[in-house]
Amino acid sequence: MEEAEGNYWITKFRFKLIVIYFLKITLLSLAIGILLTSMATFVAVNSVMIFAVTFMTVFCGMLIFKPTWGVTKLEVANYLNVAYPELEESAGLLLKPLQDLSLLERFQRDKINGAFPLPNSLKKASKGIWVNLILLIGVLIVHQFLPLNTLVSQPPAALTNLNAVKEQLLPGIKDFNVQILPPAYTGKKTRTQNQFTLKAEIGAQVVWRIETTVAVKKLRLIFNDREIITLNEDGRFSRVINQAGFYQIELDGKKSDLYPIEIIPDLPVSIKIIAPTPYTTIDVGQVPKVNLAALLKDDYGISDAYISATLSSGKGEGVSFTEKKLSFNTDVNNKMAVRLTKILDLTALGMKPGDELYFFIMAKDNHGQHSRSDVYMVTIVDTTELMSMAGMAKGIDLVPAYFRSQRQIIIDTEKLLKEQGTLALEEFKNRSNSLGMDQKLLRLRYGKFLGEESETAIGGEHDHEEGEEHTTAAFGDVKALMDEYAHKHDIAEDATFFEPELKKQLKAVLNEMWSSELRLRTYKPQEALPYEYKALRLLKDLQQKSRAYVAKTTLKTTKLKMEKRLSGELTKIVQPTQHATFEHTDRSIEELKILLSILEYRKTGRAFNYGDRELLRAGEKQLIIAASTHPTSYLAALKAIRKISLANNVNVADIDIVQSTIQKLLGKEISKPQAPVASPEVNLYRSYFNHLQNANQ
């Protein structure tokens, strides 16, 4: 072979390997995709999407975890050396230029030229194609001949009938249907069903149409065992459903089963504010803007949403309030879920340092229901108030001297920034570093309030002093042995008497002082100023929290009439009388408890007497009241208790249903304190003691 022919043959062989690899993973992806698509039809999922997602997942996964498509010529040559011993591990010589080969390598290249083309070079690589092809054919046969896709061809109405509730109809009913017309604001279409069990939107118009096999004298609908509606000859009746309950059909004195009426409520708009936090403070140096983001959800659509903001300016008697209505950047457009954003520009709203902004979100749905969020608050720090000495002379102040020190650091920093243009660079750095030292000293003084004894006390290691030795632990004393190898210290924070909330704020003060010191020592006083102001604000809040307010109280006495004083007249002093009124107590809870025990005795086969049946009727009334508001929870028990009252045989399943529902009605009973009861052994000891005492006497 010529010089370029060996390289060409290996390049061609590499291309064939890559084509075979892509063909194998394509067949495998088709087989798995068709198989999962056939299985997905059982749950009526979109089969096209399932197939596309499965095919792309398997195909891309094979490309990533087995990247045969990236094989190089050298790797192909190594593969040929392993598969064909006659190449004598020299296939790589075909890839090198002839002038780069030594004399011995040229002789070896000429020797292996006779082995090309290699026989059955693609036999091993092509085996996977046949395996995947057989798998794909098998999956196609299963998909074609087994009825896996019958559910997909059915209309949506057929799918709903599969889950329809099985109902027992009166023998005289020939045909019936129930038409539900949802309110217009829901955007839902009119639907018709062939079952009496109702589940409708609140405010929906429901139309019953009932046909009988023969003419009947009386066809009535009984709602909640109280309201009776007589139907016309055409068997049609219409009503607006606004509350849950149950009903039954009466046909010439024969009553049907109880059918529940469930209501789909229309809830107001749900408002969730993602940002900002409920209380936001704009410190010195921060941009006076707040990003507002909220997520609104509703059942049928949101018609309007806006921000109601109230700006509070001034203090004391000069305070003023300004209300504003702000709109969002995004229109709701009757969407059921929408994310709304708004940038609150505090400067544009007219806020100044010391002002407060209160805002909340108002939303209205398509039904006209209003909802509002919690009130959020934004404040801008007033530097003038922080620098004032008001309140320093009165009240309890834990560290009054240190307040002045922090304030002095701020004054010196602002003075340094004003004089920066007139100072030499070296002097500017020295003054900034000196302020950093002052901030450090102040931080260490405040650290003492948290129990820190030195600068290295925060998370630092402890070095033993010279001559400090550990005592030898006694043999068998585990605690002393542990003390020898585990040096223990008191926790610094526990060495103080402050409350946890106060400690938390003191930690925040130290963090701000750390940040301020860092920037002062790196000659960035402009960046340190916001941290200094924030530390002062936290200290000011700490001072206010330490003050206690006691309201002034006065003693008001009844004015005495001097003309009656010391006269001795007792005519208007009468004997006290006590009036008591006896009200009728509700015994429904006690009756339900007794009914539980009666039903338990009924399981043994004991028949009901007159008193038992009265309690059954009382329990039935309680279940009727409960089922009229929550039919899904109590209607089954109402049916069961009526069966128990009429049946001669014992049905344990019905009794269990009624008992569990009564337990739900009773709820969890709160245990009452009771006098301790002595055990029999204690009584025996006491009797023996009394007997001995009487014998001694």
TrEMBL record:
Keyword entries, A-Z: Membrane, Transmembrane, Transmembrane helix
Transmembrane annotation, as ranges: 17-36, 42-65, 129-146
Name of this protein: DUF4175 family protein
Organism: Pedobacter insulae
Lineage: Bacteria, Pseudomonadati, Bacteroidota, Sphingobacteriia, Sphingobacteriales
